[in-house]
Write a structure and sequence with these properties.
alpha/beta; 12% strand; 19 helices; 585 residues; globular; two-stranded antiparallel ribbon; 15 strands; single chain
């Protein structure tokens, strides 16, 4: 037996070995666009192995093939004599690829029906196989769907009647225009320029135009105080903490859809956190740094400037998650400076994060961490690529078809321009975020620590207003809804139409907006998402009005506006909004 060394000396190769390993994984990450090949191999191997030893499933899939060919043959016979024959299969409601009447004409009707039947078969082939882990099953099903979407008949000239018609109508001009669009985009990509059309939306000129002052700055954020637009204001100011994965002006786009402008018009003093866009030098900024230098520093400034003992705190996406962490720590420590808490599309429980969970496992995080290690941050283009994969039909293949083949480039709008104005994520913070929240779900399961002491969302008793969006692929509303299980505070939950961004930018008068709303009283019962939806009240219009009434009911009588900044308290204005940090690229 070899005696154990109480103080083993470090292996001289430790540092070299770690550096070599990290460099190798980082190189692989660059080649695979941040995806872990090991995870993909494991997932498809497990699926193939369990399918190979499942004769019942094989028999079932074989029978499905026969039935689907029979349905396709039956449809072909019926459609030959009846152009309006009932299809063998209908596309999913969100699948808009085959809506043009041209797809009902032969032979394209047979092609589209064959594709949809094939898509349905592959779903059956990649799901419901005994022994395959849920995570690997979801990855295989997702991978098969991506491959099918790439091979869809809509993507090829020979099999797309809509594209053929467009070429005939334009005399081939659409292909020339599409090629020009492709060259433009390639040139912009090579030069590191934003997409074509974003030059028409300049921060501080026609977006992010609400007037205000920078009243505080630290290494991580600038605090904007907006000028009042009413003679009197509510005594409780509003402090907004956006996500640092996005720039704050999603909430101050054009004047007609600016949440900031709307709130000041309702008689509120509004403060906004504008995050610094981190670089390599910020690699060690972690979640605790964001909490202390973000909402906590901002809260101190707002209290000092306005003299208000309490504020209405608002968090968007990751900013809402951070705000919930800050609120739980404050509740634990007896800090009651939050009059209310509002969260827009923000998760606090991460066991069901939607398809983003496909990119979260130990192997995948190892790849992402080493990719970030080589630079000190995760670039916005890498995050954007993951989101595009999640909605490849809408964001990849439809764009290739529309812009590069049909020559139809949609006009740039303020929301699209904002979406192209990306930010970075520092290495330490993003690694902690993915591991402690997504992978381990520490916040929901009572293991998340602030100042070396555990926090619990159950300590939050402040009234909550929580917004989920119907088509959110970043923070699925079922996941957002789980705040009901973590805190027994009075909770007004709103489910609004739209997605993660467009559902939040929902100004009054916006056509087609609708939402459901229901309030759970303090210590009242909670319901699962579908039961909640059945019980909630449906309403037409903007949820902003619902939120405005909710804030009004929890605010004091109007008073004179506070000063812009407070030099005596160390918060003298240091510049005009939108400030410096929002301009960082």
């Amino acid at each position: 037996m070899v005696a154990a060394d109480a103080h083993p000396s470090p292996d001289p190769l430790d540092g070299i070995a770690e550096t070599l390993d990290r460099a190798a994984v980082a190189a692989i990450a660059q080649a695979t666009f941040g995806l872990s090949p090991a995870t993909l191999i494991q997932a498809f191997s497990e699926w193939a192995l369990h399918l190979s030893i499942s004769p019942g499933k094989q028999l079932q899939l074989g029978a499905k093939v026969a039935r689907k060919y029979a349905r396709l043959f039956d449809y072909a016979l019926r459609s030959a004599s009846d152009a309006d024959a009932a299809p063998a299969i209908e596309p999913l409601p969100q699948d808009r690829r085959f809506r043009d009447p041209a797809w009902k004409q032969p032979p394209f009707n047979i092609l589209s029906q064959a594709f949809l039947l094939n898509q349905q078969w592959w779903y059956a082939a990649t799901t419901g196989i005994g022994g395959v882990s849920k995570h690997h099953q979801e990855m295989v099903e997702f991978g098969a769907r991506q491959m099918l979407d790439m091979l869809a008949p809509t993507n090829f000239l020979a099999t797309n009647p809509v594209l053929q018609r467009k070429i005939v109508e334009t005399g081939g001009k659409c292909l020339i225009e599409g090629f020009q669009h492709l060259l433009e985009d390639m040139q912009h990509s090579v030069r590191g320029l934003p997409p074509v059309g974003t030059e028409n939306f300049k921060v501080g000129e026609n977006v992010a135009t609400a007037k205000g002052k920078i009243v505080f700055r630290n290494r991580l954020m600038e605090l904007i105080q907006y000028e009042p637009t009413t003679e009197t204001v509510r005594p409780e100011p509003i402090l907004i903490v956006p996500a640092w994965i996005m720039k704050y002006y999603i909430l101050d786009l054009s004047p007609e859809n600016s949440l900031v402008k709307w709130l000041t018009g309702q008689g509120y003093t509004v403060f906004m956190v504008s995050w610094h866009n981190p670089g390599s030098e910020d690699r060690d900024l972690d979640m605790e740094a964001y909490r202390q230098l973000g909402p906590m520093a901002a809260l101190d400034a707002v209290n000092a400037i306005t003299g208000a003992p309490t504020v209405h705190a608002v968090g968007y996406c990751l900013g809402g998650t951070l705000l919930s962490i800050a609120a739980a720590a404050m509740a634990r420590d007896g800090d009651d400076r939050m009059a209310s808490i509002t969260m827009f599309a923000a998760q606090t429980e991460f066991s069901e994060p939607g398809e983003l969970g496909l990119f979260i496992d130990e192997s995948q995080l190892n790849v992402l961490e080493n990719m970030m290690w080589s630079r000190g941050y995760l670039d916005s283009s890498q995050m954007g690529g993951a989101f595009q994969i999640l909605k490849s039909n809408d964001l990849v293949w439809s764009r290739i078809l529309g812009e590069y083949l049909m020559g139809e480039r949609p006009p740039m709008n303020d929301l699209m321009a904002w979406n192209a104005d990306g930010t970075r994520m520092p290495y330490a913070m993003h690694s902690q975020y993915l591991r402690r929240l997504f992978l381990d779900d520490d916040l929901a399961e009572g293991r998340y620590k602030v100042d070396s002491k555990t926090i619990s969302l159950s300590a939050i008793r402040t009234p909550l207003f929580v917004v989920g969006t119907e088509r959110d692929h970043v923070a699925p509303w079922h996941s957002v809804h789980k705040i009901h299980l973590l805190s027994s505070a009075e909770t007004t939950f709103v489910l609004t139409s739209g997605g993660h961004n467009a559902g939040i930018v929902s100004e009054p008068g916006h056509r087609g907006r609708r939402y459901h709303v229901m309030t759970r009283e303090l210590d009242g019962p909670s319901y699962d998402p579908e039961d909640w939806l059945a019980r909630a009240t449906p309403k037409d219009g903007s949820w902003w009005l619902e939120w405005g009434a909710w804030l009004d009911a929890r605010s004091g009588k109007a008073i004179a506006p506070p000063p812009m900044g407070n030099a005596d308290k160390g918060y003298a204005p240091i510049g005009d909004a939108p400030g410096h940090y929002v301009l960082e690229h």
